[in-house]
Design goal:
- The protein is an alpha+beta fold and 278 residues long.
- 32% of the residues lie in helices and 14% in strands.
- It has ten helices and eight strands.
- The strands form three sheets. The protein has a four-stranded antiparallel beta sheet, with helices on both faces. A two-stranded antiparallel ribbon has the order 1-4.
- The protein is globular, with a radius of gyration of 18 Å.
C-alpha cells in the first residue's frame, strides 16, 4: 500500500508548482532514456497507463539473485524500469511497479531529498504516524512482524527481498493505528488542497485513480452503488489491504504476515457486517 503515499507526495509537488501532471519523465529525469521518457507523462505513471513494463515480470527476476541485491535508484531505473513500451501511453491500463519506482526517482530528483525522508517530513511526522516508515532489513524495529510463505509442508520463513527494489512502489511498513490516522487526514486538506486530493480518487482507466483503486459494489453486494477507495499490496511473506467507505467514513485495514489469498474475502465479510449495522 505504498503507492497511495507516493501519489500524494507527487501531488504535493504539483501543488507547489515543481511538477506538472502532463510533464514527461524526461522533463525531470535527464538520465532516463529519451525516446520513452519524452512520451510518458507523470499522470500516466500515476494511473498505470504508461506502457512501461513491470520490472517484477522480468523472467526469473523474483526467484533469482537479482531480487536479493541492493540497488541505487538510478541503477535500478536504468536496468529494470527502462524497457520498451508495451503499448501507446494512455491507451491501456497495466499495473506497473516500475512506473511507481520512477515516480520515486522523480521525487528524489526534483527535491534533492531521499524518498523516505520526504515521507517522514511531509506525511508521517505531521500526522503522528510514529510506527510507519521505509523498510530497512538491517534496522531493529520493536515488534516488527516476520513474514511467512506457504509450502507443501507448511509455513516457512519468507524469501529475502531487498527493499531498494520495491522502493516507492512497495517498501513501507505501518500499523492499523497509523493507517487510521492516514485515512482521517485524507478527509481533510491537511496534506493537499481538495482540488488535488480528489484527483487521487478520480477514476481513470479500469477505475484506478492516482495510487488508489475505485470500487463500486454491484447490486446485492454490501454498499452497492457506493464508492469505496482501496488498495492492496503483496510482497514475499506479507499482504495488506485498505478499503475506505467514503460515505460512512468507515475504514477496513487488513495486515497479514503470510501469503494467504483471503484478504479480499475477509474484507467483503467485514463490509457485510458493517452495512447490516446501518
Amino acid at each position: 500500500m505504498t503507492k497511495p503515499f507516493t501519489a500524494l507526495l507527487i501531488l504535493q509537488f504539483v501543488n507547489e508548482g515543481k511538477l506538472k501532471l502532463d510533464g514527461h519523465i524526461s522533463d525531470y529525469l535527464p538520465s532516463y532514456r529519451q525516446d520513452t521518457g519524452s512520451q510518458v507523462t507523470i499522470s500516466q505513471l500515476l494511473s498505470h497507463t504508461s506502457g512501461i513494463p513491470n520490472s517484477l515480470q522480468s523472467p526469473g527476476f523474483l526467484d533469482g539473485p537479482a531480487s536479493r541485491m541492493r540497488y541505487g535508484v538510478k541503477e535500478f531505473a536504468r536496468q529494470y524500469c527502462s524497457g520498451d513500451l508495451r503499448f501507446e501511453p494512455g491507451t491501456k491500463f497495466e499495473y506497473s511497479n516500475s512506473g511507481y519506482f520512477l515516480l520515486g526517482a522523480v521525487l528524489e530528483q526534483i527535491s534533492g531529498t531521499l524518498y523516505e525522508q520526504l515521507l517522514r517530513d511531509r506525511i508521517f511526522t505531521p500526522l503522528g504516524m510514529n510506527d510507519s516508515g521505509y523498510t530497512h532489513s538491517e534496522t531493529v524495529l520493536a515488534h516488527r512482524a516476520s513474514g511467512y510463505e506457504r509450502s507443501a509442508t507448511g509455513l516457512r520463513n519468507a524469501r529475502y527481498y531487498d527493499m531498494s527494489i520495491p522502493f516507492a512502489a512497495g517498501a513501507l511498513y505501518s500499523t492499523v493505528r497509523d493507517l487510521y490516522l492516514w485515512d482521517q487526514a485524507l478527509y481533510t486538506e491537511r496534506l493537499l488542497p481538495a482540488r488535488l486530493r480528489d484527483l487521487l480518487f478520480k477514476p481513470n482507466l479500469e477505475n484506478y485513480g492516482y495510487g488508489w483503486g475505485i470500487l463500486i459494489p454491484k447490486a446485492g453486494a454490501p454498499y452497492a452503488g457506493e464508492t469505496i477507495v482501496m488498495h492492496g499490496g503483496a510482497i514475499f511473506g506479507f499482504q495488506s489491504l485498505i478499503e475506505r467507505i467514503l460515505s460512512h467514513r468507515e475504514l477496513i485495514v487488513l495486515l497479514d504476515n503470510t501469503d494467504s489469498p483471503k484478504l479480499l474475502d475477509i474484507a467483503l465479510e467485514i463490509r457485510r457486517v458493517l452495512s447490516e449495522s446501518h
